[in-house]
Amino acid sequence: MHTLSTIFEALPYILEGTAVTLVLVLGALFTGFLLGVPMAVARGYAPRPFKWLVAAYVWFFRGVPVLLLLFLFYYGLFGLIGLDIGTIGASCVVLGMTSAAYQSQIFRGSIQSLPAGQMKAGRALGMTDIQTIRTIILPQALRLSIPGWSNEYSILLKDSAMCFALGTPEIMARTHFVASRTYEHLPLYITAGLIYFAITMAGVAFLRHVERKTRIPGYNAAGM
User: Fold this and answer.
1) Counting Cβ atoms within 10 Å, is residue 47 exposed (0-12), middle (13-18) or buried (19+)?
2) For residue 121, what are the contacts with CB-CB under 8 A and spacing of at least 6?
3) Tens digit of each residue's pLDDT (9 = 90 or more) over 25-79
4) DSSP calls for 204-220
């Protein structure tokens, strides 16, 4: 009974961290999208120096652990340039920059799955490469990227738990705070796990709904 009482007393406090977690995940997804789409396009169509630059970015952010990146930027780079955006802002930026590396690969794969002749067809119609990419290539590629984007959402949600190392008041940080004072570690961490699971399932279900709504009947990656 004491354990249940502790959980019910702590639950409102822990659930307040859900809003912070969602801000981190959604902010990182949006930042990753804004950076990832141009990088994916650059990898496919830009001159070689730009491709190398994007490849180096992807290599760095995919090769360094998220926790190390959080420390590197928050305690290192941000402090060096005098940027104070708080733990939530810093966590969101770092997760977003990391997500951009992964999202660029998702979008790149979708772009490469499309028939190469679509670019030539756009040129034959008198469209510029940018117009063809914006009006023909990207609308198809983004539809095909939704399943991969759903997976990235799940990964970001789990990575957001590491932000508690900076003191970001998200679910994990609040759970750890309560557990260290009540010594009810196992039930409280199980509760946190169930909250993460519920958020994951809700987000994935929403993205699957978006995928069904945006699917074009009879259309596949081959453009047929």
Assistant:
1) exposed
2) none
3) 999 999 999 999 999 999 888 888 898 999 999 999 999 999 999 999 998 888 7
4) HHHHHHHHHHHPPTT--
Stretch (H or E) spanning 112: helix 86-112
Coil, helix or strand for 167?
coil
- Where b means 16+ CB within 10 Å and e means fewer, 63-99 reads eeebeebbeebbeeebeeeeeeeebbbbbbbbbbbbb
Burial class (CB in 10 A: 0-12, 13-18, 19+), 49: exposed
The DSSP string of 3-60 is HHHHHHHHHHHHHHHHHHHHHHHHHHHHHHHHHHHHHHHHHHHS-HHHHHHHHHHHHH
pLDDT higher than 70, residue 221? no
Q: Is the pLDDT of residue 220 over 90?
A: no
pLDDT at 64: 92
CA distance 17 to 169: 6
Side-chain-side CA neighbours of 196 within 13 Å: the count stands at 20
Ramachandran region, residue 219 (left: φ > 0; alpha: ψ -120 to 50; beta: rest): beta
- Backbone torsions φ then ψ of 32, nearest 5 degrees: -65, -35
Q: What's the rounded mean pLDDT across residues 143-152?
A: 86
Tokens linked to 175: 């759970």
- Report the alpha-carbon distance of residue 113 to residue 111 in Å, rounded: 5
